[in-house]
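Colleagues,

For the teaching module next term, I've prepared a clean inverse folding example: a structure given as tokens, and then the sequence designed for it. I'd like students to try predicting residues themselves before seeing the answer, so please don't circulate the second half yet.
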């Protein structure tokens, strides 16, 4: 898919990967609407994006709610005159032991990371079909491919999002709507600010702009997936499939340090 002239809605577009992706898409000639929950963050983001020119607007909406999804989609359709691409980027995380994670935190991850993308995609499908050259981009996580301790719910919902995308891609094959899934690794974003785990624990961070660049390349190639982490991540994925007990042992050795490093990791 070529970006020039494409009409794009990016959820969670006020910071991190969403903001970097909006910048890259504008540079490629797309028309963009970003959504987010916080008006102040959206204002700062939109002011920054407009410095480079291009067509970009913002809408304050909580896509974790039915009303918020309706608001975001209606605004995008009105501003853009249709929709060629939906980027389900908004997400939330709470790390820690499952029994120490509250029901409210668990339900928030389920609603924002899994239910919201499914329901927003469902609502957007008529507009995407009308485009006849459209795409849904789901931002999952590397943890959906190799699940880490203390991220049980997050791994579950992101893994669910990945399989949702795979099934929907096949469902829509030949109908003018493509679905691509993105698996970022640890990325230097506000969402990761409260995570103290470093490379020694498997959290080697890369800039959000690098992830955005890879996503753009995937869009242009109509790729099925974009996996970050390079050769090291590829080896872990293969090992997780062929001999997961080895990774179980590796994580067992890391558990005490990892538990301490991620116990305050929260972005909900």
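(Answer key — instructors only)
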């Amino acid at each position: 898919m070529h970006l020039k002239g494409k009409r794009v809605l990016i959820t969670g577009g006020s910071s991190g990967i969403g903001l970097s992706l909006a910048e890259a898409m504008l540079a490629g000639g797309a028309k963009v609407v970003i959504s987010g929950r916080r008006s102040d963050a959206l204002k700062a983001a939109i002011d920054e994006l407009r410095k480079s020119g291009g067509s970009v607007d913002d809408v304050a909406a909580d896509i974790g709610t039915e009303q918020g999804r309706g608001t975001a989609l209606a605004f995008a359709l009105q501003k853009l005159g249709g929709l060629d691409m939906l980027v389900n980027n908004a997400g939330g995380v709470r790390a820690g032991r499952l029994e120490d994670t509250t029901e409210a935190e668990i339900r928030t991850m389920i609603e924002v990371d899994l239910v919201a993308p499914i329901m927003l995609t469902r609502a957007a499908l008529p507009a995407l079909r009308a485009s006849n050259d459209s795409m849904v981009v789901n931002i999952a996580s590397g943890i959906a491919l190799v699940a880490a301790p203390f991220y049980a719910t997050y791994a579950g919902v992101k893994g669910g999002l990945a399989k949702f995308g795979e099934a929907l891609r096949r469902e829509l094959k030949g109908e003018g709507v493509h679905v691509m899934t993105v698996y970022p690794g640890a990325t230097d974003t506000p969402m990761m600010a409260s995570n103290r785990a470093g490379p020694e624990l498997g959290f080697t961070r890369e800039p959000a702009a690098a992830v955005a660049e890879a996503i753009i390349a995937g869009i242009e190639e109509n790729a099925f997936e974009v996996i970050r982490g390079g050769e090291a991540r590829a080896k872990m994925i293969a090992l997780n499939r062929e001999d997961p007990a080895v990774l179980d042992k590796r994580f067992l050795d890391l558990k005490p340090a990892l538990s301490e490093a991620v116990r305050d990791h929260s972005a909900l």
